Amino acid sequence: MAGGSTSNGARHKATWHIGGWGNPYEGGGQPGKGIVTYSLSTNRQRPWAGFFTKGVWNSVRRVRNQVLYVVPPFILAYSAMQWAIERNEYLNSKPGRAEFADAEAE
Protein backbone atom coordinates (compact mmCIF):
# COMPACT_ATOMS: atom_id res chain seq x y z
CA MET A 1 0.00 0.00 0.00
CA ALA A 2 1.28 3.40 -0.91
CA GLY A 3 -0.32 5.32 1.94
CA GLY A 4 1.09 3.21 4.74
CA SER A 5 0.00 0.12 6.53
CA THR A 6 -3.05 -0.01 8.78
CA SER A 7 -2.43 -3.51 10.00
CA ASN A 8 -1.57 -4.26 13.61
CA GLY A 9 1.68 -5.87 12.53
CA ALA A 10 3.22 -2.49 11.67
CA ARG A 11 6.03 -1.29 13.84
CA HIS A 12 4.95 1.16 16.51
CA LYS A 13 7.29 3.21 18.62
CA ALA A 14 6.00 3.48 22.20
CA THR A 15 6.03 7.19 22.99
CA TRP A 16 4.15 9.48 25.32
CA HIS A 17 1.93 12.26 24.01
CA ILE A 18 3.26 15.43 25.57
CA GLY A 19 0.13 17.52 25.00
CA GLY A 20 -0.53 20.84 23.34
CA TRP A 21 2.37 23.29 23.43
CA GLY A 22 4.48 21.03 25.58
CA ASN A 23 2.10 20.82 28.53
CA PRO A 24 2.90 17.42 30.06
CA TYR A 25 -0.29 17.28 32.11
CA GLU A 26 -2.77 18.03 29.33
CA GLY A 27 -2.48 14.98 27.13
CA GLY A 28 -2.07 12.40 29.88
CA GLY A 29 1.62 12.16 29.15
CA GLN A 30 4.45 11.48 31.49
CA PRO A 31 5.78 14.55 33.29
CA GLY A 32 9.29 15.57 32.43
CA LYS A 33 12.27 14.54 34.48
CA GLY A 34 13.37 16.98 37.13
CA ILE A 35 9.99 18.75 37.34
CA VAL A 36 8.82 18.91 40.93
CA THR A 37 5.31 20.01 41.81
CA TYR A 38 4.21 20.88 45.29
CA SER A 39 0.71 21.07 46.66
CA LEU A 40 -0.92 21.87 49.95
CA SER A 41 -3.87 19.98 51.32
CA THR A 42 -7.10 21.99 51.30
CA ASN A 43 -7.62 21.51 55.03
CA ARG A 44 -4.16 22.97 55.71
CA GLN A 45 -4.72 26.19 53.78
CA ARG A 46 -5.52 29.21 55.90
CA PRO A 47 -6.91 31.97 53.67
CA TRP A 48 -7.94 34.17 56.61
CA ALA A 49 -4.66 33.82 58.52
CA GLY A 50 -3.60 37.25 59.78
CA PHE A 51 -6.56 39.06 58.21
CA PHE A 52 -7.83 40.69 61.38
CA THR A 53 -4.37 41.57 62.71
CA LYS A 54 -2.65 42.70 59.50
CA GLY A 55 -5.22 42.74 56.72
CA VAL A 56 -7.39 45.55 58.05
CA TRP A 57 -4.43 47.90 58.50
CA ASN A 58 -3.07 46.92 55.09
CA SER A 59 -6.44 47.81 53.55
CA VAL A 60 -6.45 51.16 55.38
CA ARG A 61 -2.95 51.92 54.12
CA ARG A 62 -3.82 51.02 50.53
CA VAL A 63 -7.01 53.11 50.55
CA ARG A 64 -5.13 56.06 52.05
CA ASN A 65 -2.51 55.85 49.28
CA GLN A 66 -5.14 55.77 46.51
CA VAL A 67 -7.59 58.37 47.82
CA LEU A 68 -5.94 61.30 46.00
CA TYR A 69 -6.21 59.45 42.70
CA VAL A 70 -9.89 58.56 43.10
CA VAL A 71 -11.64 61.34 45.03
CA PRO A 72 -10.75 64.48 42.94
CA PRO A 73 -12.19 63.07 39.68
CA PHE A 74 -15.37 62.12 41.53
CA ILE A 75 -15.64 65.61 43.04
CA LEU A 76 -15.08 67.16 39.59
CA ALA A 77 -17.67 64.89 37.97
CA TYR A 78 -20.20 65.53 40.76
CA SER A 79 -19.81 69.30 40.53
CA ALA A 80 -20.13 69.21 36.72
CA MET A 81 -23.28 67.12 37.03
CA GLN A 82 -24.76 69.46 39.64
CA TRP A 83 -24.04 72.46 37.39
CA ALA A 84 -25.70 70.70 34.43
CA ILE A 85 -28.78 69.82 36.49
CA GLU A 86 -29.16 73.39 37.76
CA ARG A 87 -28.61 74.81 34.27
CA ASN A 88 -31.19 72.43 32.80
CA GLU A 89 -33.72 73.34 35.48
CA TYR A 90 -33.11 77.04 34.81
CA LEU A 91 -33.42 76.70 31.04
CA ASN A 92 -36.71 74.83 31.42
CA SER A 93 -38.12 77.34 33.93
CA LYS A 94 -40.20 80.42 33.12
CA PRO A 95 -37.33 82.95 33.50
CA GLY A 96 -34.97 80.75 31.45
CA ARG A 97 -37.47 80.39 28.63
CA ALA A 98 -38.10 84.13 28.65
CA GLU A 99 -34.37 84.86 28.49
CA PHE A 100 -33.67 82.49 25.58
CA ALA A 101 -37.00 82.80 23.73
CA ASP A 102 -35.46 84.85 20.96
CA ALA A 103 -32.60 82.34 20.53
CA GLU A 104 -35.12 79.60 19.65
CA ALA A 105 -36.77 81.69 16.96
CA GLU A 106 -33.57 82.12 14.98
UniProtKB/TrEMBL annotation:
Subcellular location: Mitochondrion inner membrane
Entry keywords, A to Z: Electron transport, Membrane, Mitochondrion, Mitochondrion inner membrane, Respiratory chain, Transmembrane, Transmembrane helix, Transport
Chief subcellular location: mitochondrion
Annotated GO CC locations: mitochondrial inner membrane; respiratory chain complex III
Any one biological process term the GO annotation gives: mitochondrial electron transport, ubiquinol to cytochrome c
Domain of life: Eukaryota
Annotated membrane topology: Single-pass membrane protein
Pfam families registered for this protein in UniProt: UcrQ
PANTHER family according to UniProt: CYTOCHROME B-C1 COMPLEX SUBUNIT 8, UBIQUINOL-CYTOCHROME C REDUCTASE COMPLEX UBIQUINONE-BINDING PROTEIN QP-C
Function as written in the Swiss-Prot or TrEMBL entry: Component of the ubiquinol-cytochrome c oxidoreductase, a multisubunit transmembrane complex that is part of the mitochondrial electron transport chain which drives oxidative phosphorylation. The complex plays an important role in the uptake of multiple carbon sources present in different host niches.
Family: Belongs to the UQCRQ/QCR8 family.
Subunit architecture: Component of the ubiquinol-cytochrome c oxidoreductase (cytochrome b-c1 complex, complex III, CIII), a multisubunit enzyme composed of 3 respiratory subunits cytochrome b, cytochrome c1 and Rieske protein, 2 core protein subunits, and additional low-molecular weight protein subunits. The complex exists as an obligatory dimer and forms supercomplexes (SCs) in the inner mitochondrial membrane with cytochrome c oxidase (complex IV, CIV).
Name of the protein: Cytochrome b-c1 complex subunit 8
